[in-house]
């Protein structure tokens, strides 16, 4: 045994006892939850990662615990340059600040190689690990045979051919420099089951672990997920591992590893992924198929971060919506996230319409300066043209964004910054083109419309307050056979061609090129007088 150890492990590994002392228990109350998020740096932050981070951070904050980030970069083939930075900045952008106390670091797995190797050596010394010299071809042949016999796939039972080899046989292969992996020597009986209590799934019966999985990877000696998870979550003193439910089937293996390493077992909660409705069937929000799976989608579109956060909280706990209604001015951090309610939100559905509604609400609550500042920041990165406009005339655009933003009735039209320009593009005087009147539905002919607008032009005065302005519009009505108000029109429809709305609609169309717009009086107030007069001339 010592011969093998000397051949395969480096000399200066830290000892298990040293590690246990270095990464000592956190000084926290017993109810404090230590949670973490462990993404891989693939250049893509999944919406699900933000969702899980939010949940983990909330539980940590609510219990005066700790939430931290660990980068799982052991799969060097999938790693993309700059991806770690994208993870750091995305979490910060979403206000998901994580603990960076280096006592428990480094937080990047590739920088912890010695630690994993030390524990692998420890397992090897206590005969809970062994060398396996199977080639990829041999493993493939085993898998095919298992498939043919309709058996569970993997390295277990009689298929674990190197499990009981003698020291001599192992040394002989080492002498030949045959490549190997170090496998865990499982302790369970795959025919038997045990009950795992999951924070989110409740009691789940699982088969015991009989899989002899690799602990370190053949190509670079970095740990497999299984070893890294158990070692890191022990040393980093995680109390609650909340992770995607694709890991539920590995729980037995993880229990086995925890026990073999003499570590107390963490609590597990396996969370259902965010789903998407495609036609009438649901499926997991997919990195490959769905643009909205990538968190950068929301930034590019210009979703307000707070809206995305609150939308995700809604998915986690459906009572968040009611809480928000009752606590309009509170910060979402004051909401108490419940584990029980989370357990019930089985595979929540991503619904962009709902997210947009929340976003509209958030933007409706902003003042014009905040709208300007935020859209300015967004446009700087994503819309050069609009950025130029915002830069060239700040005062003007502040006035535009102030329309229907003060007073009782605030419109909720804007959901995302990328739609703002189109919504207000008639304020872009350089680009505004006269509308096509041939498609405009009216009780008047084209000549009459021209005539009415000319008449209106002569009485229009930008100094008029809203009341005076409306009075003048009404006064003009009888001349063109229109009722000055809706009530008069309804009382005797036959007597009129229409009501005052017909006239304001002509003004609206001339000024904005649209049949629907925010308050036309406010729009007229923002546009320069000469621009108004120009547009009223058709
Ligand atoms: N890197 C793992 C994943 O992305 C982390 C799972 C975990 O939270 O333990 O699935």
Report on this model:
- By secondary structure, the chain is mainly α.
- Among the domains are: 135 residues, Rossmann fold (3-Layer(aba) Sandwich), CATH 3.40.50; 73 residues, no CATH class; 60 residues, no CATH class; 99 residues, Orthogonal Bundle (Arc Repressor Mutant, subunit A).
- It is built from 24 helices and twelve strands.
- Helix 11 crosses helix 14 and helix 15 packs across helix 16.
- The longest helix has 16 residues.
- The mean pLDDT is 96.
- The site of glutamic acid has 8 residues, from strand 7.
Task: Describe what is shown at a glance.
The chain has 24 helices and twelve strands. The chain has 538 residues and is mainly alpha-helical. The protein has a two-stranded parallel ribbon with strand order 1-2. Strands 3-4 form a two-stranded antiparallel ribbon. It has a two-stranded antiparallel sheet with strand order 5-6.
Q: Strand order of the main beta sheet, please?
A: 1-2
Proportion in β-strands: 5-15%
What's the architecture of one domain, going by CATH? 3-Layer(aba) Sandwich
Question: How would you characterize the largest beta sheet?
Answer: 2 strands, parallel
CATH topology of one domain: Rossmann fold
Task: Figure out the total of helices.
Answer: 24
What is the structural class?
mainly alpha
Bound molecules: glutamic acid
What is the radius of gyration? 33 Å
The end-to-end distance, rounded to whole angstroms, is 96 Å
